[in-house]
TrEMBL record:
InterPro entries: DECR2-like, NAD(P)-bd_dom_sf, SDR_fam. It holds the Pfam family adh_short_C2. This is NAD(P)-dependent dehydrogenase (Short-subunit alcohol dehydrogenase family). The keyword NADP applies. The keyword Ubl conjugation does not apply. Keywords: NADP, Oxidoreductase. It comes from Algoriphagus ratkowskyi. It comes from the Bacteria. GO terms for molecular function: 2,4-dienoyl-CoA reductase (NADPH) activity. GO terms for biological process: fatty acid catabolic process.
Length: 290
């Protein structure tokens, strides 16, 4: 199936060292696997070293190449700086940072404790900012080019109830992306973002559709193309955006959601529930001849 096929030519990321936060699971892992297949070396980081070690073994066995697992909580600046030192020490230079780590859960906002709200803000906005600042300062000091790719969501610009800390934090990450795309272009540092719609992962599904919610709110039903995303589709877009083929793309957020957020936005988009017979009746009632 073409949806599960790699798109870039073999070797498209050869010579690139790519750091992925949250790279041990879900979409981070899928994007990392494809980068590896295209010839990159990758560093995967997150809090759980056991998960990272297992993923690194699995990836290298499947794709070859080099995968370096480094434990790092992006909320802790000392850990971020130590992780960056370790990664650059092992590989010499990191060319791309993929800010993918996130935390999220659904809840009515008034039920959230201050700590719950801050936990998501800290992982998503503070964590992304800390990794970005650490990498960017080092690239600038060493006069090295760099690429940031930040994973946001489509509700970064619409907002969304029940995931308010995540929406606020992702909006901040989008602003960070666009701001630095302009400010740091003079240092040969590009910044772009991807806004995915629903892509099934254990992490997202267990927190956003817990229990029976997954049956009640089938995410595919909200998507005009009628399905959820395939991980390889996202990996193809990410590989393009971190590659030199996208050198002229800077400050962009690319949506990959089958048209989902626009469906929610358009005033009359929900009229697709109207059956053909009812359209026939309406036509007939205004006197149109068959
Ligand atoms: C309300 C909750 C909660 C929940 C935790 N808290 N879960 N409040 N509803 N479901 C509260 C806790 O009670 C605590 O507050 C505070 O949040 C911190 O909780 P901890 O468990 O101590 O935090 P921590 O161990 O740091 O874990 C962080 C986490 C967790 C965000 C809570 O879910 C996590 O590790 N997530 C990482 C992976 C993830 O979320 N992936 C999904 C990304 S999907 P108190 O006051 O009690 O101390 C995504 C997709 C969006 O972003 C778009 C989809 C289409
Ligand atoms: P996931 O597997 O849960 O990925 C989240 C990753 O972040 C995990 O590997 C987790 O690893 C890491 N992480 C969490 N807190 C961290 C911290 N404090 N420090 C460092 N790493 C941390 O979920 P996913 O669905 O693949 O999500 C990946 C990205 O896609 C996220 O940015 C998410 O917002 C975005 N997204 C997903 C969807 C979707 O439908 N799946 C849609 C839109 C956007 P540890 O637990 O080991 O730390």
């Amino acid at each position: 199936m073409i949806l599960a096929e790699g798109m870039l030519k073999p070797g498209a990321l050869k010579g690139k060292n790519i750091l992925i936060t949250g790279g041990g699971t879900g979409l981070g892992k899928s994007m990392g696997e494809y980068f590896l297949e295209l010839g990159a070396n990758i560093v995967i980081t997150s809090r759980k070293l056991d998960v990272l070690l297992a993923t690194a073994e699995e990836m290298m066995a499947a794709k070859g190449g080099k995968v370096i697992p480094i434990a790092c909580d992006v909320r802790e600046i000392e850990q971020v700086e130590a992780m960056w030192k370790e990664a650059t020490g092992q590989l010499g230079q990191i060319h791309v940072v993929l800010n993918n780590a996130a935390g999220n859960f659904i809840s009515p906002t008034e039920r959230l404790s201050t700590n719950a709200f801050n936990t998501v803000l800290d992982i998503v906005l503070k964590g992304t900012s800390q990794v970005t600042l650490t990498a960017g300062k080092d690239w600038i000091a060493k006069k090295q080019a760099g690429v940031f790719l930040n994973i946001v969501t489509t509700y970064a610009w619409t907002g969304s109830g029940y995931v308010v800390p995540s929406a606020a934090a992702k909006a901040g990450v989008l602003a960070l992306t666009r701001s630095l795309a302009v400010e740091w272009a003079k240092y040969d540092i590009r910044s772009n973002a991807i806004a995915p719609g629903p892509f099934p992962t254990e992490g997202a599904w267990s927190r956003l559709l817990p229990g029976d919610l997954v049956k009640k709110f089938d995410p595919a039903k909200k998507v005009p193309v009628g399905r959820v995303g395939e991980h390889q589709e996202l990996a193809n877009l990410a590989a393009y955006l971190v590659s030199d083929y996208s050198s002229y793309v800077n400050g962009e957020v690319m949506t990959i959601d089958g048209g989902e957020w626009l469906k929610g936005a358009g005033e009359f988009n929900n009229l697709d529930v109207i059956p053909e017979e009812m359209w026939d009746m309406m036509e007939a009632s205004r006197g149109k001849k068959a």
